[in-house]
């Protein structure tokens, strides 16, 4: 199983020394003894141990000419899970003052009894390399490497515009991780540690405690924002420009445990799930080093053959044959790895198919939003005046009598027409409920309905959204008496876009059989358009 894959590029004459020093320190931990710098650059095999865990290292090199390639393959069993073996492949390619480093971590299960999940983690080697590069005076990360430094958002208005441009950049290949502060001003995930774990994979953006959530949502959109301790992963754009996201609310993050290591591991798992395959394509494979080495040796032997006698030529050919056999074995292993990767890709294709459906839904929502905005512009533009009649609104607020149900739903429609649909049946029922006495309570209920409830519904579904209302204000369904009676169920059918839609979910005020004190608001959630559709706003619908 592919656990971790990363590629880093460095520039500067000091990059090679910094990287090789890090590799040497990392191998010393794994083997229990250090290797001389010359040994790190020479083909060979070594066996060592870390405590009771035995480790085997193989070094492959072809440095006769440019580019110079090196590969280190380390294998060792899992010290806690029997039947699982870990393989870490590290590759280095040097061409002039540019040095590429790749690191791949895989597991092989040798027993059907292995059922322990593999946690996401960053190899120590990556941390050592980053630290050495930071200390080096004549080496640095290439500008193509993402996530070298932590970025901030919300310090000023321009930061939202800058991030919007970065999110929409078509050639962006790495995810962006937005980390918002909780109510106390602190993030639930340590941003500095998270960025260090995601170097080369993703860019972490820390939202300042004093940020303006309304301004951020206005520029980036609610789906690309984060607040209240949430973490929002914005993946790389697709060829069509669609940006998929994964939002984790504060309660989800706290459910990961109190440990920062555990929380960071969860975020890293979601990142590597989308980056591993892409990063694997840039991996400097051991079999690639062997193949290039053999080709170079054959070319050198061919050049020397004119000056060899029969015995020398025979020995050269025997060595070439042995190397070819070794390469064939490496290719077989490589082919096995490719098959395993293909199986992983099949699972990935299945996931992408589901994501494609989500994207299509998102595009439908965008189209509808555009049409809604056009409609609002038409109403506000061509002599139609403001969407809301301010004079009427002030008069309603200052008068002693409460607003009628019809006035309530009309005001909500004027203010939030892009979030809700008021059906003719709702207007008709509201007109009949003109004697209802608690119009201000109804207006407050409807305001929470189209703002806080709608947002919670989009982020966490009904289980989270229902908490917006107090006890006795919201019902997710009708009683069994109604649900078991076809005639009563038909009373909850309302026509929306030419089709009858069941609206069992409803808001409620009062329980008495009195039209002056009791009202019900039945609605439907149009998930595709992200709109609340009100089919009834009036007296209690018929009961048995």
Provide an overview of this structure.
The protein is an alpha+beta fold. It has four domains: 2-141, 2-Layer Sandwich (Alpha-D-Glucose-1,6-Bisphosphate, Chain A, domain 4); 151-281, Glutaredoxin; 286-363; 390-538, no CATH class. 45% of the residues lie in helices and 21% in strands. The protein is built from 16 helices and 19 strands. It has helices spanning 15-31, 37-40, 124-135, 157-168, 191-197, 213-220, 250-255, 260-281, 286-304, 310-381, 390-398, 405-415, 424-432, 439-465, 480-483, 486-490, and strands spanning 2-11, 44-50, 53-62, 68-77, 84-95, 98-109, 140-141, 151-153, 176-179, 203-207, 231-234, 245-248, 420-422, 474-475, 493-496, 499-502, 506-509, 519-526, 531-538. Strands 2-3-4-5-6-1-7 form a seven-stranded antiparallel beta sheet. A five-stranded mixed beta sheet has the order 8-10-9-11-12, sandwiched between helices. A five-stranded mixed beta sheet has the order 13-19-18-17-14. A hairpin with a 2-residue loop joins strand 5 and strand 6. Helix 1 (15-31) runs antiparallel to helix 3 and helix 12 crosses helix 14. The protein is elongated, with a radius of gyration of 32 Å. It starts with a strand and ends in a 6-residue tail after the last strand. 28% of the residues are buried.
């Amino acid at each position: 199983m592919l656990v971790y894959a990363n590629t880093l590029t460095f520039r500067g004459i000091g990059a090679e020394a910094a990287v090789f020093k890090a590799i040497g320190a990392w191998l010393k931990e794994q083997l229990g003894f250090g290797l001389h710098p010359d040994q790190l650059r020479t083909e060979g095999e070594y066996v060592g141990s870390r405590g009771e865990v035995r480790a085997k290292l193989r070094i492959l090199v072809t440095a006769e000419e440019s580019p110079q390639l090196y590969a280190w393959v380390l294998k060792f069993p899992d010290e806690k899970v029997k039947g699982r073996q870990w393989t870490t492949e590290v590759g280095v390619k040097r061409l002039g003052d540019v040095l590429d480093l790749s690191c791949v971590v895989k597991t092989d299960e040798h027993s059907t009894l292995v059922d322990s999940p593999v946690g996401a983690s960053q190899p120590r080697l990556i941390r050592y390399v980053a630290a050495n590069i930071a200390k080096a005076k004549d080496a640095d990360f290439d500008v193509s490497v993402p996530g070298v430094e932590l970025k901030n958002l919300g310090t000023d208005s321009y930061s939202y515009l800058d991030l919007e441009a970065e999110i929409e950049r078509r050639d962006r290949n790495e995810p962006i991780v937005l980390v918002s502060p909780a109510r106390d001003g602190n993030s639930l995930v340590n941003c500095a540690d998270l960025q260090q774990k995601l170097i080369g994979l993703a860019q972490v953006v820390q939202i300042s405690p004093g940020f303006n959530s309304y301004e951020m949502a206005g520029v980036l959109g609610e789906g690309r924002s984060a607040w209240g301790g949430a973490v929002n992963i914005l993946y790389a754009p697709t060829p069509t420009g669609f940006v998929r996201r994964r939002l984790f609310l504060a309660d989800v993050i706290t459910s990961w445990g109190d440990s920062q290591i555990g929380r960071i591991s969860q975020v890293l798992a979601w990142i590597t799930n989308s980056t591993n395959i892409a990063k694997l394509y840039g991996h400097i494979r051991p079999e690639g080093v062997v193949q290039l080495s053999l080709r170079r040796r054959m070319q050198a032997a061919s050049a020397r053959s004119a000056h060899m006698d029969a015995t020398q030529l025979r020995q050269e050919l025997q060595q070439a044959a042995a190397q070819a056999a070794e390469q064939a074995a490496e290719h077989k292993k490589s082919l096995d790895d490719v098959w395993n990767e293909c199986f992983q890709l099949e699972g990935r294709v299945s996931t992408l198919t589901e994501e494609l459906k989500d994207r299509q839904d998102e595009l439908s929502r965008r189209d509808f939003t555009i049409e809604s905005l056009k409609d609002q512009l038409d109403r506000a533009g061509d002599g139609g005046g403001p969407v809301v009649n301010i004079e009427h609104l002030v008069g309603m607020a200052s008068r002693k009598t409460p607003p009628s149900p019809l006035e309530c739903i009309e005001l909500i429609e004027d203010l939030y027409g892009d979030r809700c649909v008021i059906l003719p049946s709702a207007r008709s029922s509201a007109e009949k409920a003109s004697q209802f006495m608690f119009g201000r309570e109804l207006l407050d209920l409807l305001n929470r309905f189209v703002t806080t409830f709608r947002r919670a519904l989009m982020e966490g579904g009904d289980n989270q959204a229902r908490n917006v209302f107090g006890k006795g204000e919201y019902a997710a369904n009708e009683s069994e008496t109604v649900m078991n009676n076809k005639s009563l169920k038909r009373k909850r059918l309302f026509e929306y876009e030419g089709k009858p839609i069941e609206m069992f979910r409803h808001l409620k005020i009062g329980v008495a059989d009195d039209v002056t004190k009791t009202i019900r608001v039945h609605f439907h959630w149009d998930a595709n358009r992200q709109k609340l559709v009100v089919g009834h706003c009036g007296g209690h619908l018929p009961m048995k």
